[in-house]
Amino acid sequence: MIRCPCGPVITVTPDAQDGDIVLCRVCGSAHRLNRQADTFTLEPLDMQGSAEDLKPRPETRPIEAFISLAPATVTI
After folding, report:
1. Which helix (H) or strand (E) holds 54?
2. Does residue 62 belong to any structural domain of this protein?
3. Which listed site, 13, 14, 52, 56, has its alpha carbon 20 to 30 Å from 62?
4. What predicted TM-score, i.e. pTM, was given to this entire model?
5. What is the maximum span of the chain, computed from C-alpha positions, in angstroms?
């Protein structure tokens, strides 16, 4: 997670790459991710996300990865 200049944090997904554009869900501002060692820094862009861009969406990859590790059956 990275702190937005407005205060809250911006979640960065595990598959994020250098140069990706992310949005703050609070203020709507857009930022470019810049890789620095094992983390990212934010480069503010002169853009705002639309209401559609800011709409919450489930992150299915982490859920699928977790489910793939679960046993097929559980004996009780």
Report:
1. helix 51-54
2. yes
3. 52
4. 0.73
5. 56
